[in-house]
Amino acid sequence: MLLTVSTTHQPATDLGYLLHKHPDRVQDFRQSFGTATVFYPEATQERCTVALMLDVDPVRLARSRRKNAPDFSLAQYVNDRSYAASSLLGVALADVFSTARSGRCNAKQELADSAIELEIVIPVLPCRGGAAIAHRVFEPLGWEVEAEPIALDDAFADWGDSRYVRLRLTGVVRLADALSQLHVLLPVLDESKHYWQGPDEVDKLLRSGEGWLAGHPERGLITRRYLARTGALARVALARLAELGDDVEAAMDPAEDEEITQSEEKRVPLNAQRHEAVHDVLLDLGARSVIDLGCGPGQFLKRLVKSSSFTRIAGSDVSTRSLQHAAARLHLDTMSERQSERVHLFQGALTYEDERYAGFDAAVLMEVIEHVDPPRLEALEHVVFGAAKPRSVVVTTPNSEYNVLYENLVGMRHPDHRFEWTREEFAAWSDRVAQRHGYGVERRGIGDLDDRLGTPTQMAIFTRSGGTDD
Ligand code: SAH
Q1: Which atom of ligand 1 sits closest to the CA of residue 72?
Q2: pTM for the complete prediction?
Q3: Atom of ligand 1 nearest to the CA of 71
Q4: Which of 205, 212, 327, 387 has the highest CB neighbour number within 10 Å of its CB?
Q5: The CATH number, out of the four listed (3.40.50.2000, 3.30.1610.20, 4.10.480.10, 3.10.290.10), of the domain defined by the range 2-196
Q6: DSSP letters of 370-434?
């Protein structure tokens, strides 16, 4: 991962003063997730370039995650973090150049306070939503933006572009502002850092955004992406930004807030609607024993436990962290003996056969399949429908057609989604699975119905043909 900052403001080597890093030295800075190296590939009176190179250690990265970080299991080890500039670069930049970012420079304060010619290059930058997003977020800040999509494979042009761009920004900007903008906007483009976050993230965002975020026409998108669509935090941040900005009306424009209000409060939240819908289907199916596959932190299990119709309930997930959350949510450790015999949690990957998945009336896969890489989906189908083969399987997944109604949504609904399907794609998949494994299938929608686009969530109910209990 590499980022370079160049200036032609003469004497260009003054960049060393501004950054508090001497142009003749190569310096390493240990980060919680690897090592950041700062060096100057060129340092002349006319032009000076500093490079920040990040060497990510996947093991340290995994360990550095905070205690409350959701555990995305394999994603911790198998990811593009080592190759792509990403939010980690934003983090390292803030750390290594913290004094420069604060705008302090005892030796050259006047220079630090001035806008100077800058060129910033990031050769490989993950950019969800494509190059257009880079233009939308950087141009209003006075940068001239070049964002060239990088082909998936030069030899196979028809494979199309990857989600990476080569980014080049040129402009006359105060160095401290440029560093703060990169600190916020790299994770916004990457949309990958902030799976986990606490309330102090709002303070951090407002501090880094001081002087440029409140008046930014894309502050809604930036705030929501930076705060990973955590609606409550984004609302707090936007309200506080509105107080800072001169454009109070626009910042609180309800249209801009649509993505948040669509899915939260005011109406019944979509996940609560999902829980009710699937719960009712399970009752209709007459299921007494249910396994929630990919149960996550256990919200739906909690709903099942409350209902006396279910005599045996299991939850499994690949993520131990999620299972710990589920156990805490269900108060497993303080449950009565009778209750704890009724509920069981275990770790397992849905792409590997496991006899513990078998022997239930119904299995639920709620918002899980879209987290599985398409080439592994067939393995999951075999494990659930071929090997465990419960009498009924209930699958829910997003309806991608509905996404256009989320005004500020760019790309998919969650950064970990590997795909999102249209109704037609989901119908084709579920019909094929049903046919191959001897199930009948019925599909329904969950959430507010749009005449043209359908509902936000789609559900398939599979019932084994001629099936009785095992
Ligand atoms: N069903 C829950 C959680 C959905 S998030 C809900 O509706 O709220 C998707 C979950 O699937 C995550 O908890 C993730 O850890 C799990 N998951 C993803 N891939 C998996 C796999 N291959 N095997 C088991 N669980 C998986």
Answers
A1: 15
A2: 0.51
A3: 15
A4: 205
A5: 3.30.1610.20
A6: GGS-HHHHHHHHIIIIIII--SEEEEEEEBGGGGGGSTT--S-SSTT-S--B-HHHHHHHHHHHH
